[in-house]
Amino acid sequence: MDNKEFSKELEKCTRKFAVRAIRLSTALLNTPESKVIRNHITLILGTLVTSNLAAAMPRYV
Predict the structure, then answer these.
(1) Does 41 have pLDDT greater than 70?
(2) Dihedral through CA 5, CA 41, CA 43, CA 57, nearest 10?
């Protein structure tokens, strides 16, 4: 597997993970505690992982 194939596969897996994390956060109950957890899940597991991948991608392509 060369770098380009690796980067495409990593991007695909990371996007799937981010979508799953966001779906998990939307499935939580609507309580104040759940809102805090939802915000953390969406921010940390969803968007930051994808952003970090996007920032790292030029190194692998």
Answers:
(1) yes
(2) -10
CA angle 27, 38, 40 (to 5 degrees): 145
- Total domain count for the chain? 1
Q: What is the pLDDT of residue 58?
A: 65
9-36 tens-digit pLDDT: 887 887 888 788 888 888 988 999 999 9
Instruction: For residue 34, give its domain range.
Output: 16-55
Q: Does some domain include residue 5?
A: no
Domain-located, residue 7: no
